[in-house]
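Methods — Computational structure assignment.
A single polypeptide chain was analysed. Its primary sequence is given first, followed by the predicted tertiary structure written as C-alpha cells.
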Amino acid sequence: MDQRKFYAELGRLLYAIAAVDGRIHAKEAATLRRVVTEQLVPQEVTVDHFGTDRAYITEFEFDIQVERGEAPEVAFESFILYLTQHKDRFSPAQKKLVLRAADVVAHAFHGVNAKELRMLAELDRRIH
C-alpha cells in the first residue's frame, strides 16, 4: 500500500470528523496533532525525501483541507472510496489505528455529536 496516499486519506477522514459540525475546534486540531505524534509516527518506519516521517502527511493533509474549506462529506467520501479500493491491503492493525484515531478526534470537543456518530458508524461498517 502506498503509505503517502494512506496518510493523506487518513488526514481527510480526520478532517471530515472534526469539521462535520461546521467548525474545527482548537481541541480537535490539537488532538489530531497528538494522534499523529503519539500513535502514527511511532509505528511508521519510512520517511520522505526530506527525512520527515511519512505519518506527518496526515497532519499536512488535515491542514490543507482546513485551508480549502472542503465539505466534510466530500473528504469523508474520499476516504471511504480509498478504503473500498484498498480494503484488502489494510492490515488489522491499520484498521484498528484508523478507528481509534477517528474516535479520539470525535471525542476531542464535548464528546461525540450526532453527525460525528453517523460518520463513525459508517466508517466502522465499511472498514469491517
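Note: The radius of gyration is 13 Å.
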